[in-house]
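Q: My labmate handed me this sequence with no annotations at all. I'd like to see what the chain might look like in three dimensions before we decide whether it's worth expressing. Could you predict it?
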Amino acid sequence: MDAIETSKTHKLYLLLKERITSGALAPGSRLPSEPDLAASHGLSRVTIRRALDGLARDGLISRMPGAGTFVKDIAARPPVVADLANMMAHLVAMGRATRVKLLSFAYVTPPAPIAEALRLRPGERTQAALRVRYLDDKPMSYLSTHIPERIGASFTAEDLAHQPLLELLERSGVVAHKADQTISATLAGPEAAEALDVEIGSALIALTRVVLGADGRGIEHLSALYRPDMHAFHMEMVRTGDGSSRHWRPTTGAALAASPTTPNAALKTKASDRRSAPTARRRA
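A: Here is what I predict for the chain of 284 residues:
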């Protein structure tokens, strides 16, 4: 497929996806036939078919031979919603409610930025793992973790493939004290696109988190990519302050509440490890 056809396919895919997710095309409604779509959009049937293939992979449409192509009820599979103010508990709960596929596992010399973020000693290695997490058998996140070798040596690749990472970390005896987390957006590269079953260049949620112990030493460095159609972040906030200094402040989370001068806390958050019971929040 040449670049022009790829662009046309992606534009039509995005157009139809927006109409489906916005409700303009209601669940159960029948899409026009491939010839009708080709005529109305001035595209070849091959381009139409490829765009529909993408929608089918995303679970947005179903094809019924002899009957046509129909919009699926996407409300039946709500995205996972992560509570930013109680992120640690949410992660454990999500690890229990989903399954993971381990793609790689090795001990390496980490890149300098990761070694600095984890406050590693010179020459200290990390356990580097790459995983894909699934919800209802659909890939939702692409996770790259670095754990200091002194901690990672307490569990195996087999352990990581079947148990939530935070449970393995706690089993090793380390206690997460605080985390620094940044959330942004990025585009899917070839490897992430293949792992998440999306088109190259698709928009993804990007999250970087560094977890530290009470002694200030690093416990975990996570670089995660999330499909935005399957994951969202939630934070409750209140208006606080007087006059021109009024701003939004998160309602929960000790470290967040202690930083009222950061109005854009939803973009970069610092959360203390909370020992409350794990809860997984889902958006209807």
